[in-house]
Amino acid sequence: MSGVRAKTKFQPWRLGPALLAGLLAWLVAGPLAAAELVAHRAAYSLKIGEVRSGGAVVDVSGLMTMAVEKSCDGWILAIRRAMEIVTADGGKVTEDMRYAGWESANGDRLRFASRVQIGAERRQFKGEARLKGADGPGEAVFNQPQAKTVKLPEGTLFPLAHTALLIDRARAGARQVARHIFDGTEIEGAQEAVAFIGPRLDGRGGGLVARPGWNMRLAVYGTDKRQSVPQFEIEFLQLDNGVVPRLLLDFKQFTVLVSLEKVESLPAPSC
Questions:
Q1: pLDDT in tens, 215-225
Q2: Nearest by Cα to 235 from 218, 260, 214, 258
Q3: Residue ranges per structural domain of the chain
């Protein structure tokens, strides 16, 4: 993916939803019994990785916080990311992203609300999705940014259940997993995600990161069926307890390194 590329105009709105979707793809798994994950709160730093020739972005910095909490009937997820993007012409673009979601324990319902503000412009998504069974088909009903209902194809998974599947397949020795995922950040519908899974790695460090895991690469395609190349790709170390110590977000013109700075477990609810 390296080499000389024609210089293209930076389009920040393509970055916001794509970054959010990529992050949601690895956050935590669905049914706790399947993946034995821990509820946790984590803080990450963001910085520019590789800047490729012809790209419109030259620097990225920022912070991200994430809380994954177990509720009596599912999971609650909250993310906030503040990021500054420096473009090749010397301009700066600030981004403030917030996401809140609840996913049922059996993976068949999702309530979602997200807001991405880049500069003075803001985009919001809010609604609820249901599946017939844990992996679709189903439908998503948006009430922001407009009232709209979209169909979800058979085999669709919500983000938490998708990560549960990746961990379970990795444990079984699978090297590739392809499914549709829906998180509520694209009003057009579900996106196709193809994951490539590396060999099992032993855990290093202490606390919640002292767990085995796998290096994975996830290619996420847009809802346009004619699209032959991924909308974006991410590489990450996925531990078997749901914690992700590091990621690399690949947007072709440049990459963003996401590094874990602090993580702590959260208590179980009193149900």
A1: 999 998 876 65
A2: 218
A3: 13-262
